[in-house]
Structure of Cilia- and flagella-associated protein 91:
Amino acid sequence: TLSTQTDYRDGEAQTDPYSPEYVVPSGSVPELLTLATLTWGRGLPAGLAEVEMIERAREKRAWEATLPAMDNALQIVKRRKMMNDMERKEWAFREQEIEKLQEVRLEVLKKLLWRREKNQKELHAKRLDDHWQNYQKAKEEKVKKIQHDCALMLRKLIAKRKNVMGKLERRDIIKEYTDFASQTYAPLSRIGYFPDNHSERYVVKNFYLNTFAGLCELEASLPDSVTQVKIKAPKPKYTTTETGFIKRSARLEVDLAQVHQ
């Protein structure tokens, strides 16, 4: 009629099934005692192999009950022959079990070998792929270098063909100024032009900004409206109309001022 509450769940408090103590009456051999070697997790709960083992034990007990008594020599010979036959059957059964176990182990070994071979194939494929990628990169770089050298040689040949006979050409100023890629707009350093050497010529030099006399002259040339600021006072807003009425906005401002006070 009482209940208890624990801090553990059923899965944490679960133990092996309880096996109570037992007393065997004299003169009786219960069949259940033949399964005393089976425990929970080691044969229990019983499966197909345990059921087959129980059936074989029953057959062996039934066979032992049919053995003849050792009263005379004929019974002894018959008993020995039956025992030899049973021993041969047991050995044959044991060989079958060994063969089954070997087949299971062979299957496991096949699976392990197949898995190892698969891993080796994947590793070899990855290595070949890496080598192929490296060779492809080297090939692309080599092709790029060949193309670059080819373009360079073509430009050199084109430049040489322009003046095959070595004749002097007059300068075409109009063509140079119309072409923004010419030496006039974009001179090259390889012909001896370095724009950084004459960078000071791009600095703006102004007489009116760098000298005091120029500043005075610039200030004198400015009109009076720039140097002398004129401020006009704002005209007050008319709160009344031409007819003498007060505007609504003016009334609102007065009301707001009173509320604020």
